[in-house]
From TrEMBL:
The chain crosses the membrane at residues 250-268, 280-303, 315-332, 338-356, 377-399, 411-429, 514-540, 546-565, 577-597, 603-626, 671-695. Gene3D superfamilies: MFS general substrate transporter like domains (1.20.1250.20). GO terms for cellular component: plant-type vacuole membrane. PANTHER family: INNER MEMBRANE TRANSPORT PROTEIN YAJR (PTHR23510), SPX DOMAIN-CONTAINING MEMBRANE PROTEIN OS09G0521800 (PTHR23510:SF65). This is SPX domain-containing protein. Residues 474-489 have a biased composition (Acidic residues). Its main location: membrane. GO terms for molecular function: transmembrane transporter activity. It comes from the Eukaryota. Residues 444-458 have a biased composition (Polar residues). Residues 439-458, 466-493 are annotated as: Disordered.
């Protein structure tokens, strides 16, 4: 178990120690304030003013050093530019290669500077969260609001790395010109889409994107998986042993994800008809659909705990249970038993291995392709969501096979049971258990980075190449007085294996993000689960039309994420997109109400599309922010961040499906408005809560 302060100190560049945020000193001050307030020795206003002054001084120290180093980099680039101009007159390939290496050297130094900025940004966020947690002042909201929007903001320099982009541009442009000496008259500005084949530039761009939370389609899509990364950046890339990574095992996890989502949504278009054929009301479809989610509440926990020890055995168990559940679901018609139908869906929920799928990607996939794997996880889910209803629309059959009835109601069960049987055989033959599962109870205490040029080019550095002045160590003596034992206990990296420990780590910002996730899952479940009943009542839609509508909704997931991930998220901050998406979800809900005018197909389709698409956009941004504001301790253990978000979403689905069934007792004519009303209330609550915590999402 390694304290955050110790990790921060271990990962600092030694010669720059005096310029980093003095996290221990500030933590000591927070502890001192707490004692003084308990004793009645100071007022709240004094604490806020004094701590603000300390933060301002720390940020000023960081920013001035950052500007100094930027100036040194600019001077070196200017000198290299003069040498490059001289080579234009008399080209010398030996000198050109030397010049290219000199530019790469500047790039490596820039990487260390970016690493310096990122560590300080994490430290600032950490101490702000600690202050808010200790005193409950919402100090972060005040500090960010007053500092970030000021015209002379130094906070912007830390969090937005103002000015470093010019250095990146200069290095990229000159390396591109030196790389192509074949008479081309085009520059990187003429061909912005053409990648520059320089590893150091790729690493710099990745570091800048990570620092600014810039994104693209792949990373935005991968954020939906909520596979949390280390809170502190590390200069040493953590390699996962090749023996642990197995491509076919990864594919089997993604196929499991796909099949489970198909299994979830394949019954939605026909659940009401199936319920009526067994003598129940059409709105009992809410319980039929929700039974799977109820069971998933429990299965997520034991699968998460099981994945600490194995991946193969949970997947085998999952496949067997899902096979049995689908057989029961299909046989319920011939047995004329609504109980068997519900038990079949419960068994399907008990086989939900999404926690294992997510955990496998987090633990066994190398870092360099983990984002692609995360995006694959989300894509498999989205594809399954679209294929489920579409497949149900194609299964418009009715015949007898021996004594078994095969029709549009039972065919989904038989198709899925056969699919899980094939998957089980494939899993047994092809899956490879990782050789050594990660020990969740230990974390590496420190890292020692190599210093060869190859590693430097990948962004792994410990020895600084930019040294211009002596670091300031005037706070060193006071820093040593900090209580290290308290640091170790409070910032322990121990995994979270109890719900109580997880709850204690939930800050107001985390709770708000979980509320938003609950809201969007509730709204989406209401829209999807009651679609068959609502459209049949108002428009007389057949199962095929309902299936097409739901499939079209599912097919919007990837295109929408592509647009948001590649363009919108690079134009606006995540918190801005979050709030705008919530408002659009609220607008879609309001449009869906049946008030006075006759309810029409365009109103239902357009409002449903707005609600669903906005919720999809909201989910990606919400999970990205959740991983950012959530404690890094929640990236480990049974009750990790992924499990908490899954449980929040599953509870929302359970309540939504229960609401549909209860509202059915009031009659199908009132079903739509009664089920939409809670969605509207929760959505408004989430918007208000977002406004209150908006500045803490900076």
């Amino acid at each position: 178990m390694v304290a955050f302060g110790k990790k921060l100190k271990d990962r600092q560049i030694e010669e720059w120690n005096g310029y980093y945020i003095n996290y221990k000193l500030m933590k000591k001050k927070v502890k001192q304030y707490a004692r003084q307030i308990e004793a009645g020795g100071v007022e709240r206003r004094y604490v806020l003013k004094d701590f603000s002054r300390m933060l301002d001084n720390q940020i000023e120290k960081i920013v001035l050093f950052l500007l100094e180093q930027q100036g040194l980099l600019a001077s070196r680039l200017e000198e290299l530019g003069l040498q490059q101009d001289a080579l234009q007159e008399e080209p010398d390939f030996v000198k050109i290669n030397e010049l290219r290496e000199a530019y790469r050297e500047v790039g490596r130094d820039l990487l260390k500077l970016l690493f310096f900025v990122e560590i300080n940004a994490v430290g600032l966020r950490k101490i702000l969260k600690k202050f808010d947690k200790r005193f409950g002042y919402r100090f972060t909201d005040y500090y960010v609001k007053t500092r970030a929007n000021h015209p002379y903001s130094q906070l912007q320099q830390v969090f937005k790395h103002v000015g470093l982009g010019a250095v990146v541009g200069a290095i990229s442009r000159n390396l591109a010109e030196l790389q192509d000496r074949q008479g081309s008259y085009l520059s990187i500005y003429d061909q912005p889409a053409l990648p520059l084949q320089e590893p150091v530039i790729d690493t710099i761009i990745a570091a800048v994107d990570r620092l600014s939370y810039s994104t693209n389609f792949l990373t935005f899509l991968g954020q939906h998986a909520l596979i949390m990364q280390e809170e502190l950046p590390t200069p040493l890339e953590e390699h996962i042993d090749d023996e642990r990574y197995h491509f076919m095992s990864l594919m089997l996890n993604l196929v499991n994800t796909f099949l489970y989502m198909v299994n979830t949504y394949i019954i939605v278009p026909t659940a009401d008809d199936y319920s009526m054929s067994l003598g129940a009301a059409a709105t009992v479809c809410g319980i039929v659909i929700g039974a799977m989610a109820v069971a998933q509440l429990f299965s997520s926990v034991y699968f998460s705990a099981w994945s600490n020890r194995s991946y193969f055995r949970p997947l085998i168990f999952s496949s067997i249970v899902l096979f049995m559940g689908n057989v029961m679901y299909a046989m319920a018609y011939d047995m004329n038993s609504i109980t068997v139908l519900l038990l079949g869906r419960v068994f399907c929920g008990l086989g939900s291995a999404r926690a294992v799928n997510r955990r496998y990607i987090s633990d066994c996939v190398p870092l360099k392709i983990r984002m692609q794997a995360s995006a694959g996880f989300v894509s498999a889910s989205a594809l399954g969501m679209a294929c489920g209803p579409a497949l149900a629309g194609l299964l418009q059959v009715k015949f007898k096979f021996y004594k078994l009835t095969i029709d549009q109601n039972t065919a989904p069960g038989w198709i899925m049971s056969f699919s899980w049987l094939i998957y089980l055989i494939w899993l047994w033959i092809s899956f490879r258990e990782p050789g050594q599962l990660r020990d969740e109870n230990h974390a590496p205490e420190s890292t020692t980075a190599p210093t060869n040029s190859d590693v430097l080019e990948k962004g792994s550095t410990t020895q600084p190449l930019l040294i211009s002045s002596k670091p300031h160590n005037d706070e060193e003596d006071e820093d040593q007085e900090c209580d290290v034992s308290e640091e170790t206990t409070e910032d322990s990296r121990a995994p979270i294996n109890s719900i109580g420990a997880a709850y204690r780590l939930l800050t107001p910002s985390v709770k708000v993000q979980l509320l938003i996730y609950f809201m969007l899952k509730y709204a989406m479940e209401i829209l999807l689960s009651e679609s068959s009943v609502v459209t049949t009542y108002y428009f007389g839609w057949t199962t095929g039309k309902v299936a097409i509508f739901l499939a079209c909704l599912g097919l919007t997931v990837l295109p929408v994420n592509m647009i948001v991930g590649s363009y919108i998220s690079n134009m606006f901050e995540d918190r801005q997109i979050l709030l705008a998406s919530e408002i659009m979800v609220c607008f879609g809900i309001l449009m869906s109400f049946h008030v006075i005018l006759p309810y029409s197909v365009p109103q239902y389709v357009v409002s449903g599309l707005i609600m669903f698409v906005s919720a999809e956009v909201l989910e990606g941004v919400n999970l990205a922010l959740l991983s950012r504001v959530m404690s890094s301790r929640l990236s480990r253990g049974t009750f990790n961040g992924g499990l908490l978000s899954t449980e929040a979403g599953t509870i929302a689905r359970v309540i939504a499906d229960g609401t549909i069934t209860l509202a059915g007792y009031l009659g199908e004519s009132k079903l739509l408005n009664v089920t939409l009303l809670p969605s509207l209330v929760i959505c408004i609550m989430s918007i208000v809560a977002t406004c209150f915590t908006y500045n803490s999402l900076y």
